[in-house]
Amino acid sequence: MKRSGDAQPRGFQGPVPGWASLVPSCADALQLPRDRSSWGEAAGDRGLVEVRSWTESLGRIEDALPLLAKRLAADGVLLLDVDNVQSAAMLRLVVDGRPGQYDPAGSFADPTVPLSLRRVLAAAVAAGLCVADVVRVPASADEFPAGFASALLAQGLAPLAWLQGQPPVRHWLVCRRQSAVLGSVLVAGGDATARATTAATVRAWLPAEWEIVVADDEREAIAWNRAFARAQGELVWFVRGGAVPTAAAFAALSARAVIGPAWPMAGDERAAPGDVAGLMAPRKDLLLVGPIDERFTNTRVALEHQVLRLEAELPLMDGAPATWPSPPPPIEAPAAFAAETQELFAAWSELQPARKVVPAGDGDAPARAATATLASTAPPPWQHRAPRISLCMIAKNEERFLGECLARAKDAVDEIVLVDTGSTDRTVAIAESFGARVLHAPWQDDFSAPRNVGLQAATGDWILVLDADEFLQPGACERIREAALDTKVLGYHLRFINVYGGGKTLGVMMVRLFRNLPGIAYQNVIHEQVTPSLQRIGQPLGLVLASADVEIEHHGYSDAVMTERGKTERNERLFKKQLAAQPDDIYCLYKYGDFLRRVPGRSVDARALLDRCFERILAGAPSLPRELPYAAEVASLCALEAARVEDRARANEILDIALRRFVPTPNLHYLSASLALAEGRAEDAIHHYRRCLVYRDQVLVVPVQEGITSYVSYTGIAQAWILRGQRARARDLLRQAIAEAPAYEVAHLALSKLQMLEGDMSGAITTLTAFLAQHPESPGACQQLSLILQRIGQPDAARRVGERAVALLSARALDHEAAAMQRHLAAR
């Protein structure tokens, strides 16, 4: 969407004639010398530092900016010029292997370093600088056709930076060294009286560490931008003149905005869709997206465009229940409104993705996330009728779960085929009571064999595979019926939630609903897979794997069920059988190692298997680490086991390799964040915890422990902020984590420690006693309360609480020993 006037550099401050116009009048300016050894000669002695181009000799920007920040006097300015890694010149360099004919050749002695804006902003914030503006320097000519972005999208890329033509060739950052301001309220829009009234309303309850910036310009898009350029807050809240926001709405939004952009919500919908008014967001996120486009004559179109950019660039967006009276955005030029709206629609509709193929999961064939529009060349067998669905199951002594499973699934299927492998309880009778066709096959220490017996007997067009301890959740039957109508789909990933003794996983996707095509078969004696045969047979027909909004709870991994069935001993026997046949089976090594991690006393064996699996992945083809959907999980488990034996060097080595070579997962980022926090690397910890939060409400092909994508990472970020001395922000975020998960012990302990640091012993005691009232079995809370009581001169009370903590810890140890003994006796 190329609009007139794009040739001039632009920032939140508006059009910028050139670099010189950014340079303030300053007697003590410093043109940065290339010799880094002289940077720290004098601290706080410069009102201005200029970096005309970031070059190789200056080193990592994360290391250099803290040194430059120290050279600045109070309110001093750092002007930073960096090449944009997303520019057309960089694209040509990547594709052609050399600069374009008209691109600057660069210096061989000291080459420039192109950097992503996201990375530069993060480094500036970590250095304690306030980035006042980012000026985008456009390319001199647009060398790529209008449909270039959609062509890239068709190849599975996300060319958001190309939406308005070529991305900028450079970024000029205006940074200031100043006292931190927690947040800024920008009041823009409406007339002067409306803005003044709104500002007065907000000022009555706004915390002292926040500022109010009232815009002067009557045109709203320009007013928001100029107010932002004047603001100094780490958080920014957009409020329209004439609105009457409330303290409760502010509190709800600010609790979430410390992590990422937060919109006011009315129920499940945004209070004002297509409008930035009400949005509260971190400053660096807004800088990343850039200013509102001032070249639209109608504010309503400009704001809709800005909202689309925010949604596209910032995946970590949240909402808070918050509404207040607010005027709508204006339409200043009705005659141009229809044309501008059509222009906006045309630009964004160009980037609508084609049908997406979901990556294969459950250890299936290598994941290839790509778009596909192929349709099956052959008509489906159900052309003139509804497709039939067969439920295929295998079972042995499943009377505990089978009735519930079939009761929930019967409306989704037309046929039930159950292969019994030797039940001695009521399993067969229960199945027959639901009209199932029961086949009998002796158990041969091979899960694939009875699965394939069931597949061969099924007569439906589609096959749904469930185990007896897997329960369809409400609405699943209707969604399965609807999914089976799609003639272009080979199979569907369904969402499974594993219910453990200690909680649930967030969810994992597995292919369990698929077309009944000739030759489809399971493989592997344990953790059997069907996707390899599905892809081998279905892909030549133009059929694709997709995902369906079907949720299933799996109850077979609770400690009681594992003990009752003797699953531990049986599973290990099958893993050994599989490895005897295929010693280098990467998936089996991964699953076997992960399995042994849960068996008491087998951590050494688990670590050996996982390390062997990790090395096999690295020894494979260069593309293998990114093709295996579970590769990052292998790395996460290897790092976790290394950290458990205090081998942090090995853990960091594994994580570094995985972050560079594997497709990351929430668990990989969580382990990276946890190690960084333990080693005092606050910025690294915050970065990886924020990456965990990006996955919130997403379902992946690998299991994610509950809380990692929400309250657990909130708590981790708060702990990192405490390391940075940002105690007020940490306190707010810990309270948000506790509100979301009141039973999460770590958040309560972190909050009480923060209160201790601030000398608020009474508050710390209140936090812990309130938690213990609801969770008296918490040894951590008892230990911390004992410590506080000792500090305030209550040794007798401290001793009693400490003894309680020791007793609880001993009881937990005995529980683990008892569970291990039960498993041993069950095996005998």
What is the straight-line distance between the termini? 72 Å
What is the number of helices? Answer: 31
Largest sheet: 9 strands, mixed
Low-confidence stretches: 353-377, 813-828
> Any idea what the shape is?
globular
Count of extended strands: 24
If you average the pLDDT, what whole number results?
Answer: 84
Task: Please describe the structure with a list of short key phrases separated by commas or semicolons.
828 residues, alpha/beta, 6-stranded mixed beta sheet, 31 helices, 24 strands, 44% helix, disordered C terminus
Q: What's the layout of helices and strands?
A:
Elements (H helix, E strand, L loop, with lengths): L9 E2 L2 E2 L3 H4 L6 E3 L14 E6 L9 H11 E13 L3 H9 L17 E2 L1 H10 L3 E8 L10 H7 L15 E7 L4 E8 L3 H12 L6 E5 L5 H11 L2 E8 L6 H11 L4 E5 L2 E2 L9 E3 H7 L9 H15 L4 E4 L12 H16 L39 E7 L6 H8 L5 E6 L6 H7 L3 E4 L7 H10 L4 E4 L4 E3 L3 H8 L5 E12 L2 E2 L3 E8 L15 H8 L5 E11 L4 H7 L1 H15 L4 H12 L5 H17 L4 H4 L3 H14 L3 H14 L4 H13 L3 H13 L16 H13 L3 H14 L4 H13 L3 H14 L4 H13 L3 H33 L1
Parallel strand pairs: 3-4, 4-5, 5-6, 9-10, 9-11, 12-15, 16-17, 16-19, 17-18, 21-24
Antiparallel strand pairs: 1-2, 5-8, 7-8, 11-14, 12-13, 19-23, 20-24, 21-22, 21-23
Helix pairs in contact: 2-4, 4-9, 17-31, 18-19, 19-20, 20-22, 22-23, 22-24, 23-24, 24-25, 24-26, 25-26, 26-27, 26-28, 27-28, 28-29, 28-30, 29-30, 30-31
